[in-house]
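Design review, sub-item: ligand-bound model
Attendees: FS, YL, KQ
YL presented the inputs for the magnesium ion complex:
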Amino acid sequence: MIKKLFHREQELHQFNNLLTNVLDSLSSILITVDNEMRVQLWNREAIFFFQKNREQVSRHVLNECISPFYIETDKIKSAIDKKQIQTINNYPYEKDNKCLLFDVVISPLSFGSAKGAIIRIDDVTTKTLVEETMVQAEKIMSMGVLAAGMAHEISNPLSGMMLNANVINNRLTNTQMPANTCVAEEIGISMYAIKSFMEKRGIMGMLKTINALGSRMAENVNNMLSFARKSEGDSSFHTFEEIFEKTLELAATDFDSKKHYDFKKIKIKKVYEDIPPVPCEKAKIQQVLLNILLNGAQAMQEAKIKNPQFIIRTGFEKNRKTVCMEIEDNGPGMNEETRKQIFEPFFTTKPLGIGTGLGLSVSYFIITKNHGGEISVASSPGKGATFYIRLPSEAMN
Ligand SMILES: Nc1ncnc2c1ncn2[C@@H]1O[C@H](COP(=O)(O)OP(=O)(O)OP(=O)(O)O)[C@@H](O)[C@H]1O
Ligand SMILES: [Mg+2]
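KQ shared the predicted structure:
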């Protein structure tokens, strides 16, 4: 009898060990509580995350043990009383200055006449971020397809209109063209009189405006068409450093001519690492960098930043065979809502006529679709913005 009891006790001990091991080997935080919200089981992940060992929490009230993390007592009670699983998704919690997201699942537990709940807590920050990025990427891609389709429809009539505007200009003003002079003579009027009438009535100015607006529209249409365009394939090996230096030259002249911002006033700090050249279309990557610099300069200028500066960092991730570039500005930054949308075609916070919202979406397509890379942004209000570009260091198949 004693031997049997001893054997039972040994079995129970072994089972207890097994249970603790199973709970400890889980990557989730696992806690069980009784009907009065007092902690019973507390696995290794819980010890690690809440920095409290089992003795410190055993039989203590749950929310005191996990503070400042908090789980509504009503939720746990409801799981126990209604015998229904309760969930809390994307619970935001700040740890080590980082905002993390957690899923909490509360399952009812009954053992004999006693009741309680088992609580599983999982860090879903990365998963949520990846899902969010994928949804966003799909949205951008489908908007791109739509925009490219629209652009295709606009492109031909627009070319026709511009061509005709040019022909009209030529027929009204070219006093040397035989076809013009012949017809003018036929109806008894001189080309000089026609030209002078047109000029006096401001018609030539109007034609010029049609031309200028048409060119701007053509530029936008061309940008929209690039959403559907495959890589032209004329890529060669260039370093980020080389492309960036060239872009800076372009930026300085381009910005000066627009008189919107004085690019030379912006300090540029470069932290270049020794990185390998990457296969890319130089002009396209330049276009991306120029867009980012232009946006940053514009944002810093508008926010009247006293010492505007860009910090450029380059690096190489050997195991991912990827080169990276960061462009950080100390401008006004942006809120979460804006940050999530900035790569969408037509998203702009600028007034009509100033921004088209195409700059970053074109950049997105160039980096992801044409070069198989990644582009992302980190920013919060008042803390500037940092753009991250990653490109594969080996040619795509
Ligand atoms: N460095 C930055 N700081 C703050 N906001 C930014 C920054 N870069 C981009 N943005 C925001 O992202 C939006 C989208 O930028 P994007 O370049 O796509 O379009 P845009 O600059 O508004 O217009 P476009 O480039 O066609 O002239 C901007 O309107 C702005 O609100
Ligand atoms: Mg822009």
